[in-house]
Protein: non-specific serine/threonine protein kinase
Organism: Glycine soja
Amino acid sequence: MANCVCSLLIMVLYVMLLPSIIVTSIAPSSNYTSTNEEHQALLQSGWWYAYQNISDHCYWDGVFCNEAGSVTQIYPDYLNIPPLEELRRIQKLNVSAFPNLVYLDLNGMALTGTIPKEISTLTKLTYLVLSNNCLQGSIPVEIWNLTQLVELYLDNNSLTGSIPSTLGRLKNLVFLILDSNHIQGELMPKAFSNLTQLKHLDVSRNSLSGVIPSTLGELKNLEHLSLYSNKFEGLLPMEVGNLTQLKELYLSNNSLTGSIPSTLSQLENLTYLFLDSNHIEGRLMPKTLSNLTELKHLDVSWNSLRGVIPSTLGELKNLVKLYLQSNQFEGHLPIEVGNLTQLQELILSNNSLTGSISSSLGQLQNLTMLLLDSNHIEGKLMPKMFSNLTQLEQLDVSGNSLSGVIPCTLGQLNNLGHLSLHSNKFEGTIPSTLGQLKNLEHLSLHSNKLEGTIPSTLGQLGNLTNLSLSSNQITGPIPVEFGNLTSLKILSLSNNLLTGSIPPTMGRLKVMINLFLDSNQITGPIPIELWNSTGLILLNLSHNFLSGSIPSEIAQAYYLYDVDLSHNNFTILSPFLKCPYIQKVDLSYNLLNGSIPSQISCIHNLNLSHNFLKGEIPHISSEANSILDSLDLSYNNLTGKLHREFATLSYINLSYNSFDFSQDLESEFPDYCYFGEDSLISYHMPNFTSCYLTHINSVHQTNPRTKKGKPFMLIVLPIICFILVVLLSALYFRRCVFQTKFEGKSTKNGNLFSIWNYDGKIAFEDIIEATEDFHIKYCIGTGAYGSVYRAQLPSGKIVALKKLHQMESQNPSFNKSFHNEVKMLTQIRHRNIVKLHGFCLHNRCMFLVYQYMERGSLFYALNNDEEVQELNWSKRVNIIKGMAHALSYMHHYCTPPIVHRDVTSSNVLLNSQLEAFVSDFGTARLLDPDSSNQTLVAGTYGYIAPGQVLFSIIY
């Protein structure tokens, strides 16, 4: 009986313990299955191929397991994965095989493909990093399932699409980094309002658009907000001021408008504030800035801020960098800026600041960068102020109105690497103490009034890479010590009064790429040693008195691209045109003789005009690699036949030579370029200008057409000559009589009317009818001496009429000015000089008929808020180029030269394409090289040569 009871108790106990026995026996098997799947997933990725001999994956690099052997962390960023495209696909790692994964870091593995949706199965994941890869596609909406996620990094990929609103469910998120992708769309307000734990939000460098949502102001824990380099527009929301924990705010490079909200003053913990490169307007409010006492870096550059720079900036004692450049600030620089003793970089360039440079800047002893260029600052550079700035590395005060001498104390700034003082009114000599700046790499003193010689101490600047002393009044020779500037890449000494020869020591400058010595009085030959500078790309020695031959050693300058040796006295043309990269060569206005080298086909733009070259032009069609596109051989002694291949060039000028026109080339050129015998040719392709033909006595062979007409010509030609002599005699007599009458009435407004054809006839009646007898409604501008009218002629063409006021037309001096303008404009033809179609000198009215300019004057464009927005820097540079081309043409290519003497922004007109055209030649003067300056002042004060103003005051 007892045995039965014991057996019964044992059976009951066995039944009770059976489930735990079963679980115990099954659990290790289940855990083994899970870890085996993880093991296989790691192996199949191919990323841990080097660990196949280690059975336990928990000992592999980049893998971390929990106590049960399940993978919780994966970070294989430093594994030596083979560079196979197949192994670089993110899908190679089956992420769903790791149910206990908490930490996944695949940063910088050059992974491709799209973010797998299976990643949403990792519900325990708190840290996900997929940064610095090549991932594409959109962020999967299933990512909302990662509710435990604290840090999410998807930056520096090629992700597209929009930010999914499901991100708003990740309420534990602290770091959200999505920068440097191609994400588009808007920042959805609901997506971020729930992320109340967020401290760091970065969506910069994407293509996000729309407005910045005000709900960002609800993220009270936010410390870092980066939205820069997107397409955000509209106002910066006031609610940003609620982010009182914010330390860094980056909103640069967007299209934000409006003013800076005053609520930013509540961000007392802010250390970095970047609002640059937007369209923000208004003023820097003093109260907004005074509370930001922790601020270290303030950048509001490249906006449209105006007004004065507030003195309260001086209260930001922790400020290290202050960038206010490219705005519309005006007034003086406040002396309180001198209180910013921690300041290292101060940039105020490209504003409208006036007054002098405050001496308080001398207190900024930690300053390394001071840029005040492109303002209206006057006064002098105070020597004592700069003697304290011993840490200064960059100093730029160019483009102002500073005067006086360059202080020699600048030579004490031993750390200075960049010094730009150009485009001011500095005078006196270049201080020799600048030679003490051993770290100097960039020295720009051009466009001042400096005189004297170049100090030889500049030859001690062994680190100098860029030296510009052009457009001054410097005299004397080029120092031989310049040969010690072995780091020099760019040397510009043009537009001075330098004499002597080019020193052979210049050949030591082996790394020089640009050399400009033009417009001086340099003599002698080009030293052969110069061509040791084999890296030369741009070379301009024009407008000097250089002589001798052009040395063949120039071919050693392998990379030479643009050579200008024009307006010198060179006599021998060496065959140097073999440089493989050379594109433009100008040897015009020399004394070159001999024949043209056969290598002209390898030059894109070649000008050999105004020389004494002879012989035939070499063929260009035989070379398959010919790149010749522009050729000017005018004013030489060339002979021989013309080649058909010339018709393929964009520009060719063969005028004033002695060519043979026996060959019929008419079919090769456009219809308007008719070739008669004995023609001079100046030909542009369509859309440039016209084809000009003039007849001279050329050497030509007998043509069958001339043989057939020879008996006829022998009879008719004498008769035609006799008739022409009679007609010319009659016309000459009539002209003399008319000129006598005209001269007697010229000061009394005699009648004279001449209008050239302009796509049809233009009659006086057409002009009166088109303007309704100069009605005020057609007036588009009025000046001190006349008004300008817009007239649409019957042909549909639009012209501009410059009509003198009646009172002015009675004044003999303005009558002279009128004749002067007509005389000037009838002699010149240039694409950047306004075209004159005709004129009228009559008792009733006096006017000029001009080419119509749709955009008006440059003065109007610069002073109109809407127009000036369209004048970006590239267009402004093109305008300056157009003006420079026009003035260069007048000064150097007109015979005699023409001096405008009143180039102002009001006398520069703009067409519909914003191209510049110089106008108003009423005060222009033909320059007689043998005459001295006249005593009368001509032009607008402020725009005329100082010498002429001084002369008029003395006398």
Remarks:
- The first helix runs from residue 2 to 45.
- The first strand starts at residue 63 and ends at 65.
- The CA atoms of residues 341 and 364 lie 5 Å apart.
- The mean pLDDT is 81.
